Amino acid sequence: MLRNLFCLIFFLNYLTVCLAQVPLDHSKYRDSLNMVLKGTASDSVKARTSFLLAEYWSAKDTIKAKRYLEQGTQLSRNYPYLQGIRYYFEGSFEEERKKSEDIYLKADDALRKYTGRDVYLFRSKIWRKIGLWKQLDDDEKAFTDILVNKAIPFAQKSGDYSLVGDNYLAMGIVFKNKRQLEKSEKYCLKAIETLKDAHAEPGLLAKAYVTNAENYVFLEKYPKAKAMLDSARVLLAPFPESEHFLRYYMIEGMYFTVVRAPVKALKSLDKGIGLAKKLNMTYDEQSLVFQKFYVYYENGDYQRAKEVLHQLLNRKELMSLAVNRLQIYEGLAETNVRLKDMSSAYNWLKQYSVLSDSLNASKLKNDIHELEVKFRNAENEKKISELKAENDRTVLEARNNRLFNWLLGALSLVLLLASFFSLWYYRNNKKLSEQKELNYRQQLKEAEQQRQLEYSSALLEGEEKERRRLARDLHDGLGGLLANVKINLSGLESRAETNVIVEDLGGIINQVDGSLTELRRIAHNMMPMALIKFGLEIALEDLCDFFRNEVTYISFQAFAIQKDIPEQVQVSIYRIIQELLTNAVRHGRASQIVLQCSQNENRFFITMEDNGRGFDKSILKTKKGIGLNNMESRVSFLKGNLEIDSAINEGTTVNIELSIR
């Protein structure tokens, strides 16, 4: 009888952490976020980083978490999009369900106006949080509806299949809680497959294995349960103090209990209790202690089972939930029956009945209220129908009267309209002629603009083709000749008879080496092979590596750059960034450069900041170099905007926005 109650007490606690996806290596994750805050990243990047740190500390240090949330709020004040994201993180700190749900809805409303993978990712998480509140209100139907129609579709649009897999796992948990175990198994296996294909964070995949192991315990498929637990343990083993182990030890204890291995079951549960104490997770500790009751009970050690329950009676965290009190009262009644203490058994059964009746009465009251609301709605609809019928009769009578009056007025109106028609026709004809003339001029203007764009495109395309040809000729032609010269000289050096000749030949070989290096650099600048072979993001990484040296540090950050950008556009973007880095290193003599590139649908954004010498912006009005002119031409060709902010000895900031389609 009691066996079917395994792990119900862990249910609410497990759901509240189902969205936490902090990597298992907590310290490395935290340190990487702190490094971003200490660096020279833009306010928008630091704002997002602050929000992630707030989420990280929310379960460990609430004061510190709220401080990071406030810091992110300040940094994001000039970014409306980030304000929507802020509401998502803010909702996690609100303990009152209605207020928390209102904040999440506000976040979804703020992000609704935007599109893009990042937007869909956060909207999926927002609706998952709203669904969690529904689940905690025991409204599994509403939670399932949110998963199917909101959380999963948004996650799929975002392209984050780790999140898709996590939502499949949530569906599996819903069916598990309803004891529809075959459906739960189906969704858990689907979650595992999706998470593995997405190379998801190990803790998330381990959670899926453990959940399906619990399914197999209830389905009495014990070998499969053991296989799932073993898979989870392999993932968690490098992180022995991960909170994911709490759930693992709970289900492992269940498994050993049902296969009649009580010693192993108690050992697993004691490991979990020790870890929960170390992590200061009191509710989890008490849940694991409660699981020991089932071990003792199933093994016939009723006295120890009773002692466990009496130990938990005074633990406020566990006893604060009515469902937990019900299980403990029922467990004490059953245990005292086994111990032949019928008086105590009766008293605990009485407490169980009172609490159960109270909960059922509350549910009955809610059901009656819902029925009453439905009845009132039906009565109101009936009254509305009667009023509507009466109103229709009145409207029909009024319509007939209006029709008669309209016929009388129509005859006089026709004559009046005829007199105005001639005047209107003349004026309209005149306006139409003028409009045709304006349209013709506009078409001529647009044709001229299109011709200029085609001319510019042809020039840029011709220039790039010529660059490719020259790069190929230099690399394959002259480069090959120089390589042959070097080989011949090296052979001659090995056959030289005097030291003087050897030294001279060595000098010549070094010069040829230098010529080959310079030749390859020129060929790379004219047309980088990485751009053609691997795409824009890899080519930009290579470009930054090319400019990095012992005195110049370059930080390159790329966000959501897609690989389907037209090749001509990729080349133009590459040339723009190449010119920016050249100016910063050679002319600005910068020692630190931060380059950020991001894409949102058809817009491409470039931001570069350096700590170089800077310059007086007024010079740009009278004097521009060839490089800057070329860069402005490419920005104009891509229908973009270019902003340069600089001052002498204060570095330079460049913001560029481009249309890539």
Give an account of the 3D structure.
Pfam families: HATPase_c (PF02518), HisKA_3 (PF07730). It comes from Olivibacter jilunii. By secondary structure, the protein is mainly alpha-helical. The protein has a domain of about 130 residues: 2-Layer Sandwich (Heat Shock Protein 90). The protein is about 75% helix and about 5% strand. It has a five-stranded mixed β-sheet with strand order 1-2-3-5-4, covered by helices on one side. Helix 23 links the parallel strand 1 and strand 2. The N terminus is likely disordered.
Give me a quick take on this structure.
This protein is mostly helical and 661 residues long. Helix content is 75%, strand content 6%. Helix 9 runs parallel beside helix 11 and helix 11 runs antiparallel to helix 12.
